[in-house]
Every structure is written in structure tokens, then in C-alpha cells.
Amino acid sequence: MSAITRDEVAHLARLSRLALREDELDQLAAQLDDIISAVAQVQEVAQGDIPPTSHALPLTNVYRPDEARPGLGPDAALAGAPAVQDQRFRVPQILGEED
């Protein structure tokens, strides 16, 4: 695998509008080369026969079973409401529209 050169790092710095010193160019060239080598190693290990995973361990559904239950009736739902009108919550008018 080819190493990242100082010129390539300088070019990337210009594109990124970063002002780098000469010593930083050498340092970043070595670091970027290490990063690219590490990514290449991961690509070698991750072959097509390994299924993709989202978690290291298998997960199971922890939710309770979905069972239909009767809901609240209008009287029970409106029991704690401060104001009720025609079996609905009555709220203050906010848009200035007429009833």
C-alpha cells in the first residue's frame, strides 16, 4: 500500500482551508497512512460470508404481547377535565375565531 505523501496532505489541507506548518504535514502524513492501513485491515477481515450485524449479541423483543383491551369511554376520559362541552375537552379560544 502506498504511503500518503506530504504533498497529498498539503493538498488536502488547502482543500479544507487549514493552515498547517511544515512539521504538521509530516506528522499528519504518517497518521493518515496509519489510519488508511487500519481501514484496509478491517476490509480484509470483513468478508462477504459474514452477515452484517447491528449488535454484538443477539437481541430479543422485550415488549409485552400486543393484546387488544377496551379503551376509555367518553365519561372516564373527560372525568378529570376542567371544562367539558358536548363530550369534548373545552379549551380557551386562542385564534380569535368565533364559535
TrEMBL record:
Reactions catalysed according to its record: L-aspartyl-tRNA(Asn) + L-glutamine + ATP + H2O = L-asparaginyl-tRNA(Asn) + L-glutamate + ADP + phosphate + 2 H(+); L-glutamyl-tRNA(Gln) + L-glutamine + ATP + H2O = L-glutaminyl-tRNA(Gln) + L-glutamate + ADP + phosphate + H(+)
Pfam families documented for this protein: GatC
Protein name: Aspartyl/glutamyl-tRNA(Asn/Gln) amidotransferase subunit C
Gene Ontology BP annotations: glutaminyl-tRNAGln biosynthesis via transamidation; regulation of translational fidelity; translation
Organism: Murinocardiopsis flavida
Source taxon at top rank: Bacteria
Keywords: ATP-binding, Ligase, Nucleotide-binding, Protein biosynthesis, Transferase
UniProt EC number: 6.3.5.-
PANTHER family: GLUTAMYL-TRNA(GLN) AMIDOTRANSFERASE SUBUNIT C, MITOCHONDRIAL (PTHR15004:SF0)
Function: Allows the formation of correctly charged Asn-tRNA(Asn) or Gln-tRNA(Gln) through the transamidation of misacylated Asp-tRNA(Asn) or Glu-tRNA(Gln) in organisms which lack either or both of asparaginyl-tRNA or glutaminyl-tRNA synthetases. The reaction takes place in the presence of glutamine and ATP through an activated phospho-Asp-tRNA(Asn) or phospho-Glu-tRNA(Gln).
Enzyme class, first EC level, given as a word: ligase
MF terms (GO), sorted A to Z: asparaginyl-tRNA synthase (glutamine-hydrolyzing) activity; ATP binding; glutaminyl-tRNA synthase (glutamine-hydrolyzing) activity; transferase activity
Description of how the protein assembles with itself and partners: Heterotrimer of A, B and C subunits.
HAMAP family per the UniProt record, alphabetical: GatC (MF_00122)
Family: Belongs to the GatC family.
